[in-house]
Structures are given as C-alpha cells and as structure tokens.
Write a structure and sequence with these properties.
Length: 250
C-alpha cells in the first residue's frame, strides 16, 4: 500500500503547484478549482497536530479552494479521526483494486465499437467531453484542458477512446497514467449511458491494463466510484487491496 501511495505522491504534483504543509503535500491544479484536482496527500504515518491541520486548511482557503484530502487509509491509519475531530467530513470511502500481469483477463471489444488512441486535439476534446458527460459534468472542454491532456502523453500517459464505428461518435474513454517504479493508475473509465451494458468499460480497462503491463508495469491500480463499476473491474482481473478516503471541510 505504501508503494501505491508513494506513486500518487510522485505523480499528483505533475502539472500542478505544490506546497509542503506539515506532514501534507498540498497540490493545486492551475486554472481550475475543481475539488477532484486540488487536494492534499499525507505522509506515511501522518499524525498531524491541530496547528498543522489548521495550516493545511488555511493554505487551501487562501487560494479560494475547498480544503480536501485523498489518501489510502492503511498508510496513515490514525489520520481520519484527527481530521474529523478538526472539522473535516468524509466525502466517500472507495475501494482500492489492483491487478498484476498474471491476474489480467483480456476482454473482446464489443461489436460496432472501436478502441483507439486519440489522434488529434479534437479527438482528445471529444473523448474528454464524453467522459465528462458520463460522469454527470459539463461536456464543454476548454482549450487549456485539451493542451494539458495532450502534454501528459509526453510523460507517458496513455489515453484510449471508444468510438461507434457506424456514426464515428466518441462514446467513452479512459487513461493509464505514467509508470513509476513499476506502478501505474488506470483512471477516467467512462461510457455514455446509452452505450452501457455492452462491455465497453471492461474492454477499455482490459486494453489499458494490458498496454501498461506490456510497457513494464508490475502493478496497475484503480479506485472504482461504485460497486457496479467495481464488478466490471473484477471481471478483468482487479482485486480489492485496501481503501481510499476523500475528506473535505466546507
């Protein structure tokens, strides 16, 4: 678990501003106040004082950002209670799932669907728009976000979109983040509601995981947002390995 938290601690700062506040690494995404892109990560074994928690809260408040943390509970088992006592609230508790090369289960691409890497900025925009829509967010994708996603490819991020072969519509997508010390994260797996239940999410996850393993990853991990998608991941070889908590102070 510590290795996976270390991976997050190394990769989260890329493309973001960072600040060490006591036993916390605070990360701030440029140009957006989206809470999922602005959060702090604790050091292993973190047992912050009340003053250190207040300092972290203040660091986010000064930037007009929601004070927020994401971390794996096993690496700092006493931290959640300390944060709750200080006024933070649990947003959600999600499972951590991992997949080793020997456990991976490949899945066929459903009929009428093609999986491919984005080939242009417009492809990236359409893929991200489909992901946003699937997650219940705005389908609008600003140029700055397209540029940020494209620049990530240079550091080893792999994007994969799902395309309706009959219409050319992009109906979903996902990504594998860069590989660091043999570990990578699979994220952003999303399929438009009208195309769900056909095995597209499983095919996206399986392909991205296979490509990451073939590129040298020994461990791929992800954090499913709900039980339903967790079952999809289980069908391609992912197994529970812990939990991640998100806490914030409104």
């Amino acid at each position: 678990m510590s290795a996976i938290q270390t991976y997050v601690r190394k990769t989260a700062p890329r493309g973001r501003d960072t600040e060490q506040v006591g036993p916390f690494l605070a990360t701030y995404a440029r140009g957006t106040d989206h809470p999922m892109l602005n959060y702090a990560i604790p050091d292993d074994g973190a047992k912050p004082t009340a003053a250190e928690i207040n300092a972290l809260t203040g660091a986010f408040r000064r930037r007009d950002l929601l004070p927020r943390l994401e971390y794996f509970t096993d690496v700092a088992p006493e931290l959640e209670k300390l944060l709750v006592d200080a006024g933070y609230a649990l947003e959600r508790r999600v499972p951590l799932m991992t997949c080793a090369p020997a456990d991976r289960v490949d899945k066929p691409v459903p009929a009428g669907i093609r999986l491919r890497a984005p080939e242009s900025g417009e492809d990236v925009r359409r893929m991200r728009s489909a992901q946003n829509t699937a997650f219940g967010e705005s389908p609008e994708v600003p140029d700055e976000e397209v540029e940020r996603l494209q620049s990530g490819v240079e550091s080893g991020v792999r994007h994969l979109l799902a395309e309706d072969t009959a219409t050319g519509a992009v109906v979903g997508g996902g990504l594998a983040l860069e590989i660091v010390d043999g570990t990578t994260e699979i994220a952003g797996i999303a399929v438009l509601e009208a195309y769900r239940g056909r095995g597209i999410a499983a095919a996206l996850t399986a392909r991205l995981t296979r490509e990451a393993h073939e590129a040298g990853a020994n461990t791929a991990f992800l954090t499913p947002g709900d039980l339903g998608i967790g079952n999809v991941y289980a069908r391609v070889g992912y197994r529970p390995a812990g939990e991640c908590v998100h806490l914030s102070m409104s």
